[in-house]
Amino acid sequence: MQSFKTVAIAGGTGTLGYYVSEAFLSDGSYKVKILRKKPETVNEKANLLVSKGAEIVYVDYNQKDDLVNALKGTDVLVSILSGFDTYNIQSKMLTVAKEVDVKRFIPTEFGGEYKLGDHIYTDAKAKFREDLKKSGLEYTFIYNGVFQEFLGWAGFDVKKKEATFFVDENEIISTTSLSDIAKYTVESLKVPEARNGAIRVAGAALTLKEYLQKFEEATGELLSSF
């Protein structure tokens, strides 16, 4: 099994990225580099990660020299980027990763397991998965459910004490906490089966009605559902 020492995380100060960065730092087994877009800007999360031992590397993803300098000496590249240009950025990182002998690439999946033709945004993920498989680099795909921390987007309004369901309240939905996704990302480097494979982190699989009941039990607040 591969021995990994240095991990570079693209998007390591974002919503999920910060959790993943913290998880690698807490593990204590890796040197952690956080890739941040140029120009340099003040970022509280970046400063916190530096205080915990991370190195911040500023990079222009469109400049090959920047990517070479950022990824040189990296064993594992974790991408937690988002946006419609992510495919192009990841493709550039993949090219450079091969040149500088990165051992494994964990691309920005971190969501449902979509197929090509599902949606313009998820199509980019599916296309890059195929590119990565053909590249010869080791890879691991991380799949998870809806972020539990963002269930408010599913219609839970705590202030108004209301829950509005936009789909059948009896439909089962998989959710995963950000911290669990982060922990499994770290652990994927220690599991032989994750090499050129996938990790699926379900967390919980409940109906919206059951999530509402759990929420009420945890908070002691009763929410009206519509």
Automatic annotation (TrEMBL):
**Coiled coil (residue ranges):** none
Record InterPro entries: NAD(P)-bd_dom_sf (IPR036291), NmrA-like (IPR008030), NmrA/Isoflavone_reductase-like (IPR051609)
Q: Which UniProt keywords apply?
A: NADP, Oxidoreductase
Superkingdom of source: Eukaryota
Q: Which residues form the NmrA-like domain?
A: 5-222
* Single GO term (MF): oxidoreductase activity
Which Pfam families does UniProt cross-reference here? NmrA
Q: What is this protein called?
A: NAD(P)-binding protein
Task: Please name the source species.
Answer: Rhizophagus irregularis
* Upper taxonomic lineage: Eukaryota, Fungi, Fungi incertae sedis, Mucoromycota, Glomeromycotina
